[in-house]
Design goal:
Elements: E1 2-6, H1 9-29, E2 32-35, E3 54-58, H2 67-73, E4 80-84, H3 95-101, E5 104-106, H4 113-128, H5 131-137, E6 155-158, H6 162-173, E7 178-181, E8 191-192, E9 203-206, H7 212-218, H8 221-224, E10 230-233, H9 243-251, E11 257-260, E12 275-277, H10 286-304
Parallel strand pairs: 1-2, 1-3, 3-4, 4-5, 6-7, 6-9, 7-8, 9-10, 10-11, 11-12
Helix pairs in contact: 1-10, 4-6
Length: 315
């Protein structure tokens, strides 16, 4: 079986930076072709159209139009047996088509869970300490505004995947009571509650995956928020719910604080509010990048060695 690696120049550099030794090991196991540019019609990658059995390792950001064009061309490719992605998101990839074509697929979920959970806890401390307000005012506190301490707070987590579970473990380690909402039950010491009950907690974290079902669920979020809530959104999704409505609550002092891991430039924020917004940086640590590449390449080598029973395929 041959291996084809499709990536952008940046992501290919990540492979060389964090997984050079593993990449050399992979090349010893399988004939490997690497591309850091992909033509609109994939014509510069002849291996996709030959009849050899193949494993395709791909970064969807290297594809023209992401998953849409790739899905369109999939039936034209020959004898793909396995697809591996270095990232966790796969919204837009036609899983039913993969099933029909007999292609096994695996994303790289969980590789950056620790990094994202760390970001969530960091923003929680910043909001509790009212750092955004004090920074905007840029004056020594006079006691009219005071921060709060975490040890008296409860936490609710919306979405209990890899990030949600990692976050719950950290918060429990701090001594905070934690509950979670998830469409299925997950074995964990945190208590599962209804979506509505999440908002009875002091600090609400959004870590849920993006799909049509979760968008329908999160559409109710602005209506359920309480004045005592801090909302920390680390979903890195643009359209899960009406963020401008949450900002309106913050502007009206009907919310204690709001953090967005993916800044929405359309929000109209009044000055001196307890608000944090960053570029999409929660994943961006050395440890997460190294773990991502190592998991990615090690999973490929397990497949090449025939150890597919140890790979938890999505399809």
């Amino acid at each position: 079986m041959k291996t084809i690696i499709l990536s952008t120049k940046n992501s290919h550099q990540d492979i060389l930076n964090y997984g050079a030794d593993l990449l050399e090991e992979l090349k010893k196991l399988s004939p490997t072709a690497t591309y850091d540019q992909v033509a609109t019609d994939f014509s510069n990658i002849p291996e996709l159209f030959d009849t050899d059995e193949k494993l395709v390792m791909f970064n969807q950001f290297s594809f023209p139009d992401g998953f849409s064009t790739f899905t369109q061309y999939l039936p034209k490719f020959k004898n793909i047996k396995f697809l591996l992605s270095p990232y966790s998101a796969y919204e837009g990839l036609d899983l039913e088509l993969l099933k029909k074509m007999g292609i096994r697929y695996r994303n790289n979920g969980g590789a950056n869970a620790k990094s994202v959970a760390q970001y969530a806890v960091t923003t929680m401390f910043m909001l509790l300490s009212k750092i955004p307000i004090f920074t905007q005012k840029n004056v020594t506190p006079d006691g009219s505004i005071v921060g709060e301490e975490f040890h008296q707070k409860t936490a609710g987590i919306i979405g209990f995947g890899n990030v949600g579970r990692e976050l719950a473990t950290i918060l429990q380690g701090l001594g905070m009571p934690v509950v979670y909402y998830n469409r299925s039950t997950v074995k964990h010491s945190a208590k599962q509650v209804s979506f509505e009950e999440i908002f009875n907690q002091d600090i609400v974290f959004v870590t849920i995956a993006t799909n049509d079902e979760t968008k329908r669920t999160l559409a109710k979020l602005p209506d359920l928020l309480q004045a005592k809530n801090y909302l920390i959104d680390i979903s890195a999704a643009e359209d899960l719910y009406a963020k401008h409505r949450v900002v309106e609550l913050l502007n009206q002092d009907k919310l204690r604080g709001y953090a967005l891991e993916l800044f929405d430039p359309s929000v109209d924020l009044k000055s001196e509010k307890n608000f944090i917004a960053t570029p999409h940086i929660a994943w961006c640590t050395y440890d997460a990048e190294k773990r991502t590449i190592e998991n990615y390449l090690n999973r490929a080598m397990k497949i090449i060695r025939g150890e597919i029973d140890t790979v938890d395929f999505i399809v």
